[in-house]
Structures are given as structure tokens and as C-alpha cells.
Hints:
The protein has 958 residues and is of the alpha/beta class. The chain is built from 30 helices and 21 strands. Strands 12, 13, 14, 15, 16, 17, 18, 19, 20 and 21 form a ten-stranded mixed sheet that branches. Strands 2-1-3-4-11-10-9-6-7 form a nine-stranded mixed sheet, with helices on one face. A two-stranded antiparallel ribbon has the order 5-8. β10 (201-205) and β11 (209-212) form a beta hairpin. α26 packs antiparallel against α30.
Amino acid sequence: MVNYQENQKDISLKIKEARKLFILSCEIVVLNFLSILPVTAATEEPVLSVVYGQENANQWRGISDRLETIGVKYCVISLNDVRSGADWGERRVLFLPNVETLTPTQAIALEDWMSKGGRLIASGPVGSLSSPGVRQLLRSLLGGYWGFSLSDTEQIQAAKTKIPEWANQTGLFGKVRGGVVIPNDMGAESPAVWNSKDSPAAVVTTERSTFLGWRWGTDTASAAELDNAWLKTTINHYLTALAPSNRNKKIAGGSQSCSTTVAAAPLVQESRGAGGQGGSTSLRDAPRTTTLSDRGAGGQGGSSSPSSPSFIPPKTATAPIPRPLPMVKPPSSQEAIDQLEQAVRLDVAPNSNEPIDNKQAIALQQELENLIGRVESAHLAVLADAANVGETISESEGKQFSRHLNTPQSVKEQPIQLASTKLGALAISKDQALAQARLIAKNLPQLIAQKNYALARQQWLAAKTTLWQQFPVDRKLAQPEIRAVWLDRGTIVRAGSKAGLAQIFDRLAQAGINTVFFETVNAGYPIYPSQIAKEQNPLIRGWNPLEEAVKLAHERDMELHAWVWTFAAGNQRHNEILNLNPNYPGPVLAAHPDWANYDNLGNMIPVGQTKPFFDPANPEVRQYLLKLYEEIVTKYKVDGLQLDYIRYPFQDPSAGRTYGYGKAARAQFQKLTGVDPVNISPSQTDLWQKWTKFRTDQVDSFVAQLSQQLRQKQPNLILSVAVFPLPELERIQKIQQNWETWAKQGDVDLIVPMTYALDTSRFQRLAQPWIASKQLGATLLVPGIRLLSLPTIGAFDQLQLVRDLPVSGYALFAVENFSNDLQKLFSNTQGRIQSTTSEPIPLHQPFQTAAIRYTALQREWKVVFQNDQRPRPSQKLSDFNNQAEVLRSALNQLAASPSASKLLVAKASLTRFQSQFRVLMSQEIKSNSYQVKVWENRLVTIERLLRYGERRVQLRPL
């Protein structure tokens, strides 16, 4: 009996073990069926890093409990310790749960880490309280951004469109309280959507990131089962997407240290000023911090300061202490440049069925027609250039403007390579794409009238994407123009030597860049050893970057312009890199505190900003800057000087935030009016206007004084200014920058407005009013284009727009964002062609530039006229050719040997030709009005080059 009982017990134990084995097997089968493999199965080592920060500290218990349930091995990264890409760790997948604030340094470090193969999972309103530049960078890394929170719990459901197979699992859907994620136009998918109007995205995924639209790990947002399902599925997707041999590979250069819990010590968050923003961080003038040239030494893969230790010992691990979320005041308003871009937005959400009003309908149709025109204009430029160099283009590629070209048949026929084939996209022929786009543009009004708004948006986006793929990307199409780029201090520091700098200049020269704005004075520090400013930038050791840069540029037939901060005297972000007190005002104000400027509350650095400013009314400040700039232009053979921060800090008088109350300014204004400006307010209209004019006059008079003094020393010097494209009256009220006056008076040669936008339609709306301005006299203007977060073909589209407008070039911000893809594309379309003569640069050779650009115009007309099958009156064609030849001869004679008489003849010939141009082109206007307008714009560009050249001749007699 005892033996029987023991046998029965033994059988029962075996049955239980068998049941456990069966259940475990079933679990594995189910998980395998759902593509949710146990995340620890692939490796015994951690494959995941989870970020802990002040903003998710009180949620950490829920986060860690869910991670424990999943069974994933992970390492904890303290956000406060992240200073470089290495600090994100060597694990291949990084989880960023519910972190709303990242510093510029951390965002750049994240970009660096992901570029080495890292994969990112993020949840909640990631980065939503960060500075504008950080938000834009995160938008690029995540494939979208947090739009807004939903007021109620909603059902997450699978998107009706085709979604990735790995995300099409039933366990991933359920009730959640979260927010709408706005995907980028291209490269992002939305596998899960909210069950609400227009089905907005709840999850956005790309090849290297997944963005969950709720606060993961919080019971108030979602059930643990749904959280766990999404995290397990996403981790396994990124691990199994790799070849088996690569799944255990680490991120190169990533830190090996791994803490499994977090320290209880309170986190110290970087101060970001009022409203949670780090000051003027989305501009190029302030945006240097957003495009993050301030990442400088150690910003990527290095230590945060020259004296930082290379090894950080592991922390003592204890359980986190839950504490309430900090009271972070969200930004009350955007920075000025972002407000300006928002005002001209043409956002097209792919699945939105929101009504489209008449104004929006016209804008959508016009933008599509303009894009069609830009694509055709680019192809015509290629055809004309090919005819010039004796190359035959295939008939199928060239038939939009011609059936064939009368060029030597011995030259091998070459098909034009389009962006679609160059960049790996699905290709259709150019003619098909143009025909489809024209049909969509034609039918848009009908779709909108039928209230089929979602379909109208979808077709518009599809047409835009297809047209972008039709740009010719392997043939030269650019004519002589200003091709400038800002070479930022961070990139210079990372170059580290003349050899490193030479590699940068080689890349730029190969890409056809001919003008470099070289950051020479930044945050009060010159980048060279100066006799005027006693402290060289501490990040530079043992070499003189400015001296080497001038040599490198001139050896490559490039111009080098010294880019200097004018009235901005320091930078808190630079202090962080140098491990200095955040409130250190910079070396100059530290030595001369009486030179400082203040806001109406007595702050040297305005609330919510990061830079102290000089008082432009102080005569000692002015003399110091004049001597410093004179040293630069006389000791070094720079071709130009560019003034940045040539203004006061941003203010909002209506909100009681004003600036300019330096010691000298107050004394001078009180002497003029009998009133201390600190005692007046915008409600006192007359006095306030006088105070605004007084401050504006300080900037105006300094520009005039500097221009006169430097031209006496260096008559050939080009003086340029980087400015804000705000409306004139608003700009004077907010930053006291009246650059139209500097242009009209001839104090500056080149205006560079920072017309930064993430798509071409916004860029056009920002740039075109200033390009068309009649208030600039003989001064040239080129728009600024910010490369940060701008796709390669999007940047090319903006350049094509520039070439179709009456403007003689562009400026790119900045070298740190000048990608290899962009470099290759530029090398093909505007790069150097080996020849005995170099291409003229408009700033110093305006007449030669005008002559060559006009010859290119004639080649385009020839392509069109020779291959147009429609009848054309012979007398009319003869008149056109005669007038065109008269103008060509006049421009060539002026370029060969400039004189006042030849200039007069050229201007008169151009005026006469312009007055008859539309009559001569009446037939082309009917068939391609966009191209005729482009030709008119290019004639205006020639007119402006002649006007500019005339002033240069007066400055330096020939």
C-alpha cells in the first residue's frame, strides 16, 4: 500500500512536470505565433538600455515592474549622465520612456548613437518641452512628433493601410489614454491608429525607431499587458531584423558599463530658463545651439570638457525614490523664427479629412504646379549644359523640351539619372510622373468641392513624392552663383588640425561650395591667437584655424569670410562644454562688467535665453569690436567679414520683456530726453518710440562706422550680415535690427536672411518677399537654408527654387549637417569641372558672372526653339535673336574689360531686351508660363549683378 502510494505520488509529480513542460511549450508556440519571442532567448547579455530621468522618476516603479514581467535583461542609463553618443551605451536597443526634455547635447549624442546602428523605442510626449532645435532633430530621429493629448481613453486599432507584418498582432490593440503622433511625410509608417475622427496615428515606426503615443508603464495610460506586448514585439523586431551573426554585436564606441537599477540621489536638471526653453535655440543666429554647432569638443563621442575623466566608475545601485513630477511650465510661445515658419505652413496630413478651404485649395494646387515647373526647369538646365559640352542626352529623357539635340553623334548617349534611381526609390519615367502630377493638380478643386478631403491630400502627397524623385541628380545644372556654407566652431574644433580642416575643405570644394563663412569669434572667444582679445578659444590647442582656413580656401579657389558674433558676448551652452559656471558672461564681459547690457528686470541674460549681450551704445565696446575686426581683416587675407548677432536680444514689449538698459545707453538717452529709459513703458507712445529709435540707431551707426573703417583698410572686403526675416516694424520693435537701411546706404554688400524651413513651400513664402524687395539698393541677397532635419532631396528642391528666383545664390547652415548624400548630389550637379579657368564668384566678379549666366540662358532658349514643332513667325524669331545677341555682346565686353561706358551700354541693352521679352516669348507663355517667369527672374538677377558691380567699381576704381 505504501509502495502504491509512493508510486502514485511519483506518477503525479511526473504528470505535473509534464503539464509544466506542456504549458511552457504552448507559451513558446503562442509567443512564436505572435512573433513575440522571449527577449532573453537571443542572448544572456542585456540587449536593452532604459533611460531614467527626472520626468519619469515617479513612474519608475511601474516601468520597472513591467520590464521585470517581460523578463528582459536591461541596463539603466541616467539621463543626467549623458554627454556623448558613448553614454547611450553599447546595447543595440534604447528605450526612452516618457522623457519630455532633452538638452541639445543629449539630442546630438542620440543622433550619433543611432547613426552607428542603434535602434530607439520612445513613448509619451518625447522632447515636447525641449528647445525648438532639439524637437526638430527628434522629429527626424523618431519619424514624427507628439502632436497633442487626447481628452479621453480611446481604442488603439490596426491601421487600414498596409502595415508592417511584425506590428499586425491582436495583442497590440486595446484601450489606451494617450496622444496623437504626427508622422513625417516620408519614411514613416503608422501601424496603429486611434479609433477617432480621421484615424490619427497612435504609433509611428521607421527602420530605426518606434514611437508609442502614450506614457508607457503608467496604469492610468494603459494596461500592463498591452505595454508589454508592444515593447516585446518591437525589441524582437529590431533584433530579428538583423542577420543572426549581427544580433549580438554591440554599438561601436558605446559604454560597456551597466547598472541594473538607479541611484536614489536627486537628479539635477539643466536650467532651461523660463518656459522650459534654452533661449533662442531654433535660429541660426540663436539656432547655432539648436543645430547644435555648440556640441563642439566632446559633443559627439567625447568628454564634455577638456578636463573630463575618461572613465566613470559604476554607481551604487539602489531603488529609486518615487517623487512627484517637477512643475515644468510648457513654453508659452515659440521662438520668433519658428513662429514665422508656422505662419506660412502648408501641412498636409495624409489621412486627414478636415475641410480644405478655398485659400488652402489654391495653395495646394499652386505648390504642385510650382513643383512641376521646378522639375522641368532642372531638366532644361541639364539639356542646355549638355549641349554646351557636346554631350547627347537620350531622346526619352529629353523629349519634354526636345526630340533630339544637334550635337556631335560621336559622343556616347547618356541617360539622365533621376533621384528615384539614384536614391533607391521606385522609379517611373519623368514624363509619366509629370503627366500624373498635372492630372492630380487639375482634379484637386473637384475633389475638394466633393468634400473628398482625405483623398485630395493623399493624391497631393503622392504627386509630391513622385515629383521629388524626378530631379536629375547626376548632371551639372548650376550656373555661377554664391554657394556659401557656415563652417561652425564645433566642426572646426573636431577637425583638430590643419590636416583635419583640409579634409573638410576638400569635401566642400568637390561639392562646388565657393564661399565659406568661417566661425572666427564665438561666445567672446576668437578662434585664433589675438592681440586684442587676450583669450583664444580654450577648445583650440596648438594651431591657428583661421590662418590655415584662409590658405586652404584660397588653394581651392574658394572665398573665406570671417564669421563673427557681434553684440552677443557669451553663451551658457559654451560654458557647459568648458565646465564653467553657467552664468559666466564670457571673457570680455568678465574683464569689463561695465560693458554689459541688461533687461528691464536687471538680468544680463534675458529670461529664457542663453546669451549675455554687449551694450552697443558703449563707446568702449564699439572701439574694442572695431579693433578686433580690423585685426582679422588686416592680419589675415580674408575675403569678407560676416556679422552675426548684429542686434539686441529678442524682446516682447507687450509682455513687459524689454532689453537695452546698459549703463552707457541709459546715460545717453537720459541726456537726450531727460528721462531714464527704465522708467518708461510702451504705453508712453512718444517716449517709447524715441527709446526704440535710440537703440536701433546704435546698431545702424555701428554698421556704418565699421563699414567705412574696414573699407579704408581693405577696399576689396565683402561685408555681409546674417539677419532675421521678420517684417521690418516687428523686427525693429523686437531686436532693433533695421538691415534694409544698411543695404540702401551701401554699408553692406550681402544680406543673408535666415529663411529656415523644412519644406519648399514654407521656404518660398519666407524667402520670396525679401528676394523681391525693392529696398536693398545695390546690395545682394541670398537666402539661408538650414540643413538640420531636411531630407537630401528636399534640400535640392529648395536650391532649385533659389535658381528659379531672381537671386544669385544661397547659404547653407551648417557644415556639421552637410551629409555624405548631400555632398555626392552637390558634386554631381554643381561640382567643379576640370578646366583651365575657374568659375567666377559673384561677390568679387559680378560682371563675369552676369555674362556667363546670360550665355546659359541663351542655350536654354536655343534648346526650346530648335525643337519646338509649332510654327513661329520668322521675323519675330529673327528680332529675338538679334536683340539677344546685342545683349550678349554688351555683357561680354563689360566682363572682359569693365568700364563706366561699357556698363552703361550693357544696362541699356538689358533694359530694352527686358521690355520686349514677354512679347518675344508670347508663344512660350501659353505653353509654359512657369519657365518664362524663371527666365524673367534670371534676367532680373543679371540686372542686380550689374547694379552691384557698379557700386563695387565706384568703391575701387578700375
